[in-house]
Amino acid sequence: MAKRASGMAHIIVVGNEKGGAGKSTVSMHVATALARMGHKVSALDLDLRQRTFGRYSDNRQSFLKESGLDLPSPRCHELPEVNAADLQPGENVYDHRLSAAVAELEPNNDFILIDCPGSHTRLSQVAHSLADTLITPLNDSFIDFDLLAHIDASGDKITGPSVYSEMVWSARQLRAQAGLPPIDWVVVRNRMGAQRMVNKDKMERAIKNLSKRIGFRIAPGFNERVIFRELFPRGLTLLDLKDIGVKQLNISNIAARQELRDLIKALKLPGVDPDF
Ligand SMILES: Nc1ncnc2c1ncn2[C@@H]1O[C@H](COP(=O)(O)OP(=O)(O)O)[C@@H](O)[C@H]1O
Ligand SMILES: [Mg+2]
After folding, report:
1. From atom 23 of ligand 1, which residue's Cα is the shortest distance away?
2. Can you give the pTM of this predicted structure?
3. Ligand 1 midpoint to CA 107 (Å)
4. What is the pLDDT of residues 263-276, one digit of tens each?
5. pLDDT tens digits for range 112-141
6. DSSP string over 203-262
7. What is the fold of 10-267?
8. Which-ligand-closest: CA of 52?
9. Hey, whose CA ends up nearest to atom 3 of ligand 1?
10. Where are the domains of the chain?
């Protein structure tokens, strides 16, 4: 697949200040799905401490090597080290490392996927301002919702934005000032189905309500499925199962694979066939 028309990679950032929302799982699945479609995909893991995405990628490379398989994969890159002497006066070292990595990858990739840590860091903040598409996985819980917006006791009235959406708002401001196109912000519900229906409906109403207030789209999400926890040691995604010799996918895995396809479609990424 040729590089996109503009010659520059489309940047997908996967972020949410909450740990355990599914960022690294979604990152690996989206990046691998795009690679499998023939796009050139590089990835950066900004969780420098936990490195879940980096470890997921390493596991994939080891598994493929051991099993003699050659499956399309995103390429995970480390942030380059930088000498203090190379920094401009007052320049932040993390800003420099991230910009250097992106500048190097942009001309040679269709997509750069950036997996963010589950906390507010300088790196994550800068990454958000680079996002052409921002994917925010969100667990179906009002505790997780609280990082996007505060709501009243009934769960029906939004009383104000919260830390994470304020951070996205300032990233949007920065981009507007720099003359960059707006961020396409997509919230993806994750691990659905584990709780009572009444909570699910309440959550759905709250997210819909908020999407209009703070400007994001809602993509169909993932149900709670055990397969997501089993794939990591081999670095696999739902789309790879057939290629490693799994003859018959069970119903839950087929449904999960469809959820992933629906997500890719909903992302409306440039140059991506929605019906892959
Ligand atoms: N849809 C899902 N169903 C079941 N387990 C999931 C699902 N999504 C994520 N998980 C599990 O939840 C945990 C947190 O996911 P992870 O992707 O590491 O989140 P984050 O990167 O946001 O911290 C992991 O153990 C992962 O396997
Ligand atoms: Mg993670």
Report:
1. 20
2. 0.96
3. 31
4. 999 999 999 988 87
5. 999 999 999 999 999 999 999 999 999 988
6. HHHHHHHHHHHHT-EEE---B--THHHHSGGGT--GGGGGGGT--S--HHHHHHHHHHHH
7. Rossmann fold (3.40.50)
8. 2
9. 224
10. 10-267
- CA of 29 relative to ligand 1 center, distance in Å: 12
Atom 11 of ligand 1: nearest residue by CA position: 229
**Sheet bearing 75-77, strands edge to edge:** 75-77, 41-45, 111-115, 10-14, 133-139, 184-190, 217-219
Residues at CB less than 6 angstroms from ligand 1: 19-25, 52, 118, 190-191, 222, 224-225, 228-229
Contact 74, 12 (CB under 8 A): no
Which pLDDT band holds residue 194 (cuts at 50, 70, 90)?
low
Mean pLDDT of the 174-198 span = 90
* Cα(78)–Cα(70) distance, integer angstroms: 22
Check residue 200 and give its pLDDT. 83
- Number of the ligand closest to the Cα of 26: 1
Q: How far is the CA of 86 from the centre of ligand 2 (A)?
A: 30
